[in-house]
Amino acid sequence: MRRIWNSSAVLLLTFSIGLMSLVAAAAHEVRPAYLELREEMPNEFSVLLKTPMRGDARPALAAVFSGKVENITPTVSRPTGDAMVQTWRMRTIEPLTGQKVLIDGLRSTMTDALVRVEFADGGAWVARLTPGAPEATIPVAPTRGMVAAAYLKLGIEHILLGFDHLLFVLSLLIITKGSWRLVKTVTAFTVAHSITLALATLGFVHVPSPPVEAVIALSIAFVAVEIVHVRQGRRSLSARAPWLVAFAFGLLHGFGFAGSLSAIGLPAGRIPLALLFFNVGVEIGQLLFVGAVLALVAIIRSAKRPLPTWLELVPPYAIGTIAMFWVIERVAAF
């Protein structure tokens, strides 16, 4: 049993250090750019382009359309602290549907760009552009299937790029012993964040985003401390009933998911569909992560090589260090 725990600790240490490296390598551009077009009059759109900033540095991005369009107002730029927001109005000489939209300059960055187009008839289209695929075609009439597929993909991408959510799930995996307990813990986290995601997205509850993000980071640090207590032989509620901790903090993480979904926006007339598939995407991404961790644990256990027992404390300390860095960073940004 000791060998198994040592091997598992090494695996979880690898994941912790890997996530730390990813955060360090991509922290300055992990936030996506955002392009929004709202049709306020026939063929006239208000346009908002939000580009992430770090200090005074920001990528040079611009929205380009394949058809004929003309700007009818000057571009107004204003910094918001962590982004540069540009707004203007444009008129489409040719129908916007069927045109390709390109985020010029995206290929030379490490960030993605969310694009949302909302039409006067209530229809909407959402897409995520990447450095490898910086353009997409605006469909003539987004179908239910297209909306479902778009928000499913956004949900998967959000959780897999959400380092804080992944570190919390990783912490739960470390502190939870036994297959049945693990199923209950993961299910509790899923149910909890689904509840608050729906309530916040539908407007029944509103919680400011900055405090939520700070407390999410604090929740990771809390579980990391609990892991250390367990390693030292102290039995706490988190170890005896990790599903209760997962449910309590899952409610908080749901508000974090809702903040991201609010930034993307929901298509008028398709809100329940988009919300459902975004949440399903989050769950798929979460299960992919859990499955990857468990698969690698099984591989390392099969080796049965004895390792130093002190390695058991390295993963929680690594996770706790990252979490407290986020706490300080997010509180300072209030």
TrEMBL record:
Keywords: Membrane, Signal, Transmembrane, Transmembrane helix. Coiled coil: none annotated. InterPro entries: Put_HupE_UreJ. It comes from Rhizobium tibeticum. The keyword Iron-sulfur does not apply. Residues 1-26 form the signal peptide. It holds the Pfam family HupE_UreJ_2. This is HupE / UreJ protein. The keyword Transmembrane helix applies. It comes from the Bacteria. The chain crosses the membrane at residues 159-176, 188-208, 214-231, 243-264, 276-298, 310-328.
